[in-house]
Structures are given as C-alpha cells and as structure tokens.
Amino acid sequence: MSRVVLVTGVSRDLGARFARALATDETLDVIGVDVSPPRHDLGKVSFVRADIRNPVIGKVINSRGVETVVHMAIVANPGSGGRSSMKEINVIGTMQLLAACQKADSFRKLVVQSSVSVYGASPRDPVKFTEDMSPRVQPRTGFGKDSLEIESYVRGLGRRRPDVAVTTLRLGNLMGAGVDSQMTRYLSLPVVPRVMGFDARLQFLHPTDAVGALLAVTREDHPGTYNVGAPDIVSLSQALRLMGRPTLGLPIQLGPVVAGLLRQARLGDWSADQIAALTYGRAMDTTRFVAATGLKPRFTSRAALEEFVGVSTPGLLSPERVDQVLTGVTGLLESAGQRAGARRG
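-> structure tokens emitted (345 positions)
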C-alpha cells in the first residue's frame, strides 16, 4: 500500500513545486490541499479544496489514512486580506491542522515550513544563527511573530504525540528566476529606499534547493529543527549593484517612512521587523542540516541572485542601461560635430 502524504498550501508556487516533485515517487499517494484552486501544474497530485482553518480538514486526514503531513500553507505577506486574515491563516490554521493530526491514528510524521524570520533582526545578532540560538530581539509583528507561534504549536504536538517524527525547516529568503516575494519586489524598485549607515547581510535559498530539502526530510526521518539556506552571504549594497538600482538613503529614525514608501509602492504591508531585517540583515548556520541529510545547496546566495537579475528589467545603473546612455550621448555629440562642421564648411 502507498504511503499517503498530505501537502498544504499547494496553490502557491513553492508548495506546487514540492508536491509535484514528491508525486513522481510511485510509492507515495500525494494529496494537495488549499482553500483556492492551484495556479500551477500539480502533476500526479490529487487536489482537495479545503480550508485548514475548518475542522473538516480532520475528515480529509482520517478518510484518506494520511500518514505524513507537510505544512506549507504559511502566508508571508498580508495581501488583500490584511494582517488579521494573514494571522488567521498562519496561526489559527496551524492550530486546527495540528489538532486534526493529533487525533488521527494513521498520522506518523509532520514536516513544517518555517522561516529565517523567527530570528528577528538587531544590531546585536551573531554573524550566523544556529538552531539553538534565540533571537536577540523577538519579532513583535507580522510574519516573524506568526512563525514563532507556529513553531511553538508544533513543539506542543511533538510533546503530545511522541510517536510522531516532527521536522521543522527554517527556510532562507527564496531567490531565483520567477520568485515573487517582498524581497524580490523591493530589490526591483527603480530607486530603492534604504537606511543610511547600514549594509544588511542577506542569505538566500533557491527554490530548487528548498524543494530538495523538503523532499529529503519527507522521504526520510530527520526529526528536529534545521536552518536551510545557501552557505554564503550577500550584502544589500552588493545586491543593489547587481540589480543596477540607485538608492535613496534615509536616516534610521525614518525607518517608518521607508515602510510607508514600500507600502505605497504596493510591495506589501512592511512591518517594523522587516525594516529591521533590511537594516541589519541576518543569516543562519546551515551545517546541521547538511550533516544530517548530506544535502548541500546547488545554488549559492550570489548565484541565486544572479539568476534573478538575469530575468529582471535592467536597473538605471546596470551595464545595459549605462551603455545605452553612453551610446546615446556619443551619437548626440557626433551629430553635433557633424552639424558644426557643415556650418563651417
């Protein structure tokens, strides 16, 4: 009999990629769940339209004999529903899902997609956080706070169901061709507002490596909490140079102004914690995951960023734009010289 795996959040790009890749395994019966129809090809995945905030999710788990649950229905950006809707999906949805899992006799394994956001961001942070470290400044709002609450509920389930293998993956910021996130939208602005005097440390994770990490811990048992990201760090200034974006420097006291500018640009509801991440940056030590799984990321942070740059509109300071300007200026000068020579003649 095939193992039954339920994946939440399959209407989103990463969830769809993972579920589709998992379903290529003939020994697995993969069920994709989301409140809205999938926007991406799910391959051999069986899709069930269901809301994890509703107790009906328990009926799906019990009726299909679900053994493994991969929870990826995590919302990082409030979107049109606002912050209250985001919190309801992240926190209430996770509580309902875990309650249903706890009662299911067939349930034996849980994999949860968490985030680097649990570490917050402050000037007192270490160069890289290990899984055993706590944030120097606790996330107070938004996605970071939700992620901390989600992880606390996951640990509670582990205590109540010691027979279940529980794995939490703290993923770095996704970066690469086709990635649409608050970070990629920020870096793509024509002129990027940033806090003066600071150069945030950025660590990225290519979607291919994110899917690989999720597959590894779903196919095999690796209980525990793991940081997952590329091993290297890119500074914000390096990222903006690669993107060819000019910047607008603002003093740190105007951090709320930066958040307001980003909201006006329709880049999402930027919280104080997210502005702190763009000011100080943060990075994770990923050696525990590599040692446990033997899986190393194929993409460095820089390579993932370069792939994104390659499909992005060239910035005002990109070589392509500079060459266009120089060519245009040269042409104007040559035309002016020709006209001046004609008049002298």
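The radius of gyration is 23 Å.
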